[in-house]
Each structure stands twice: as C-alpha cells, then as structure tokens.
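Hi support team,

I submitted a single chain yesterday and got back a structure, but I'm not sure I'm reading the token output correctly. Could someone confirm the output below corresponds to the sequence I sent? I've pasted both exactly as they appear in my results page.

Thanks,
R.
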Amino acid sequence: MPETGGGGRPGGGKGRIVAVVAAVVAVLLMAGGGVWLLAGGDGDTESRKSDGNTGRDESARKHKDRLGMLWEVDPPRVAGSTTGPAEARGTWFVGDTIVRAWFDSVTGYDMNTGKEVWSLDLARRGPGCGAAPTVSDGRTVIQWGGMCEKVMAIDLVQGEKLWTKDLPSKGRGTDEYLETRMAVSGDIAAAAWIGNAIGFDLSTGEVLWKAEDGAECRDTDYVGGERLIAKVECDFGATVALHSVKPDGSKGWEWKAPDGAFVERVISLDPVVVGIKAGEALDMSDIVVLGENGDVRSKINIPEGRYLFHSTGIGLADCCRNIVVDKANDALYLQTNNHQGDDDSVTEIVAFDLSTGKSKWLSEPVEERWAAPLAMQGGKLLGYEQVTHDAPGLITSIDPETGKASAYTRLPENTQEKEFQMVIVNECHLYWRDGMFLVVAYSFKQNEAHNEEGVLAFG
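Hi R., thanks for writing in. Yes, this is the structure output for that exact sequence:
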C-alpha cells in the first residue's frame, strides 16, 4: 500500500482415529470511560470471532451433554535445529476440512473422521516460517524454504499449490525472514518483515507493491480477513498508524496511535478493535474500538493485572484465544485474572459495550475454576471452563444480556490427561467449530517424547 510520506507504494502429522464462584471479585470492574492512555491523548485474528473461514451449519451436528473424542493427530517431527520450542504456524477451516501447516507439509484432515484428505509436501519449510492466519475464498499463503525466503499460495479446498514467489532480500543473513507477518484479504496477499514488505495478487502472484528503499515510513505488519489493515511506522517507530488497504492496494482510512503507545494486537476487523500498550505497561493497557472510517468509537481501559490475555507470538494478528468479539450484540468479552474462590482459584468473564467502552456484567463460572470466553454460537457466548487435575473441561452457554452461565457440554473423562497436557502444560489454540471442540497444538519441543498430540477433536 502507499506509504505515508513516501510518495509511492511501500515499502507430518498423520491422522489416527480412536474410538472413543461462586467467588466475589475483590476489586470493582473498571468502566471503559475511566483513565485513558498513560501517555495521554486520543487516538484495532484467529480474535475469537468469525475469521472468514467457512464451515458447516451448527444444526448439522446434534447437541450432546458430553462430548467424546472423535480423533487425534500425532505431533509432527520437528525438523532442523532450534534452541527452544518450534512453532508450526497455520490452522484453517474450509468446509468439512481442518488444514494444518506442519514443518514439512500442509495437510487437510476430514473434520468428521480425522483422515487425511490431501497433503502438500514442504520438505524445506523451516520451523520459523510464518503463515497467514485467515482464508480468502478458500486460499491462503505460507512461507517455506530453508530460510523461509519463499511464499506459496495454496487452494485449501483442493489442496493444490497456486503459485510460489521469492521474497525480496536485503542480504541480512539466514534470519532475515524469521519474523514475517502475512495476511490475505480479498485478492491481496501481503507480507512484512524486518525492514521490508511486499504485496501480491493472490490469484496470480503478481507483485502489487514493494517497500521503497529510504522511505520515511514503512509497513511493519498486516492483518487480513474481512478487510486488510497495515501497521505503518514512520521515523523509526516514532509515529505509528493503522491504514486500511483498498482492494487495489491503495490506502484507505488512517488511525494514528497516541504518542508513546505501542499497537499490540488487532483483536477484530469487523468491527475494528485494537489492543495497545502505553507507558510501562507489560500487556494491553487499553482497547480502542474504531468506526468504519477509522474514527474512535470508544475506549476500554485495562487496569494492570486485572485481566488475562492468552496471546501467542508478537504479531498484530497473533491469536488471543480468550477474547471474543460479538458483533451482533456490539460487545467484547474478556477473562479476568485469577483469584482465590471458596476452595480453588477462579476467573470470570466480563462483557464490555463496544459503543460506550463500559462494562456490562461479570459472569461467574458454573464450577469453581478458570472460565474464559471461547466463541459465539446461536446468539449465545460459549465459555470454556478449564480442565484441571480433577475434572475435564466444561463448555458453558452464557446469556449475552445478563452474563448468566449454564453448563452446555462436558469433555470426556477418559481423555482428561491429554486435554490437561495440551491446554495447561503445552501451548495450544482452542476452537469451537460446528459443534466440535478442537485443541490444536502449535508449539513443539525437539524431544518428541514431550509433545502430546498435534490435534484433539471432540464432538
């Protein structure tokens, strides 16, 4: 997309089928109209809302009071050498297929059985390679190559490679591309990494724009889905803005971040919801809701230590698995920090009005344990009450008007230990898709004995 002040365009796993609080909050909820940025001034995934991926109608899967484990996928082999855990980035849903990008392949699995539907061999995809987290018309892009120096566009419905391109290089060595942020939206695929950025036509691979050498401003991150947004930094990060990108790659509206604020996450694109850090905050200190033209609709103050943000990675689009944006009810749901209940540690769910930024209600867990927002279904919020040593996880249904929670379905006891290892011990993403609960691991250790599973599917 055109840069501000630059005067131009910018800069495997294998399927294995198996048969198978009541506590009072010690602090008051802070209304969103309270303290704004520490720095002052005014000024947004697999967000857990709809990410543009397609799936089956919820009514196609009959409700059960207790789910069973339908299938699992073995953890992948971690190719190459890393000093720590390696991340396998890329999980997508298209129709009846869940697609995972592993270290040596991109593989589609049937959602009902876990059987492989198709697989693309990527023998030279390193453990640091990125992927666009969303899908556009059944297509997405990933990095591959020994140094993650290549881009591949994939038809996730057919399991076919569409095109491959080399990323431009500035000769910065083998780690040049390891922090690449990728996005797709409409017919655009975009990638940004340290000191460089590029946009492609998603259908043809034609280059739409490149970062300009010596430009005052540069694209440093992209978020895709319902729309494409670029994070643009000028004067070596002295000023930061978000730009919408039009279908032809040109710049749309602009929102400038307040002075001293770091744009941490784009939580949602419809509506646009942005998490930022101000001053010395260790995590998000404020959440900003933007209108259709990039104007500020509301602001939610996040007191330090009040809420939990289970985020992965450092990119704008990297998942916060415990945040849900509810467009229909114009609400945002967060998980409180843990505190002691009557007997055990608990967390609650808090709703915020996106029009005013003020809190609406606090939802206590059905059982005394950690509760987090999971997904929207049929106008209700689904919550996940976390697996413990004593009990498997519980999915709850929460009334978006009152916050009243009730048990919806329970996970099986015979897989409680596997659920615990993946959710508590290892790093994973949690998905609710068409009546199924999926636990998808994304971080794997070199010692394969310490990796539990690649995917657990319950239904």
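A quick pointer for reading it: The longest strand covers residues 261-269. Let us know if anything else looks off.

Best,
Support desk
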